[in-house]
């Protein structure tokens, strides 16, 4: 089966089957296009599968677009929290402020407010309290794949070396960190992130401490486990967990959430966030054919996925 079976709409090939490519493919199909997704890796081996994943605009720019894309995604993920199969839940939590300024994106989250003293971890001077979607990627990505399949998106397991090799009236390039080299763009870079997942002692809140003196630190409970992070090392390409890094990050997370002390380690992972000075989302021509680029989402690919997919659908046109 392929997407070239006639019918209305354009024939669109999405290169990349992480959270960004799959969301674009689903929305393109829903807009009436005959859509294929070409992906080099199974979904469980993508960077997307490593994400914590909390709605939070981390390491992505430009700010205005990020807030706009983030707001669309916030609404979409909030709606998905009504479907237990999606793996999305709405969860309260605290963003810790170590500096003078509150978190820059707080105004984008309805109901956000200053944290009270009893909502702050020991030693934290201030914080913002809000309810945001927490996305269990181990459940959400297979759910997204199934949504694509049942909508009629055709999956292909294939590594693309040249965009000229893929079929379609329009190509959508959403291959994360691997996107730039396919269009001669060398501005992308990895932002390595390590996590360790502990048994969940029954936590009800997430906590995010980007300004921690020891490095970005977060705790995201998911019921069956708690994602503890993290790191953000620009330019590092390794994907093997480092025991020294793990010891340090566990020290920071237990300092924030003492209930984690002694919780067994279940799994560990390292992912390479697709860093770029700004997210690339535009339409160009390559070999006489439109290419819509959608990559470079840094630490916010889940947070921006639905908003970016809406812009991709608009740029593909009809
Ligand atoms: C530790 C960690 C924690 C994170 N936490 C969060 C969080 O809390 N919230 C949040 O919003 N984001 C978070 N992120 C960031 C998020 O994971 C990324 O922004 C997001 O996964 C990027 O998605 P993507 O689809 O662009 O890329 P990827 O998930 O990397 O997918 C790329 C796809 O392209 C395919 N591909 C690559 N090369 C080719 C090729 N040549 N041909 C065909 N296919 C190809 C791959 O197989 C894959 O399917 C986190 C990341 C890390 C590492």
From TrEMBL:
Database matches in InterPro entries: DAO, FAD-dep_OxRdtase
Domain of life: Bacteria
Alphabetical UniProt keywords: FAD, Flavoprotein, Oxidoreductase
Presence of keyword Ubl conjugation: no
Gene Ontology molecular function terms on file: D-amino-acid oxidase activity; FAD binding
Family, similarity comment: Belongs to the DAMOX/DASOX family.
Keyword Thylakoid carried by entry: no
Sites where the protein binds FAD: 47-48, 160, 298-303
Binding site for D-dopa: 218, 273, 299
PANTHER family: D-AMINO ACID OXIDASE (PTHR11530), D-ASPARTATE OXIDASE (PTHR11530:SF11)
GO cellular component: cytoplasm
Protein's UniProt name: D-amino-acid oxidase
Organism of provenance: Blastococcus haudaquaticus
UniProt lineage: Bacteria, Bacillati, Actinomycetota, Actinomycetes, Geodermatophilales
Cofactors that this protein relies on: FAD
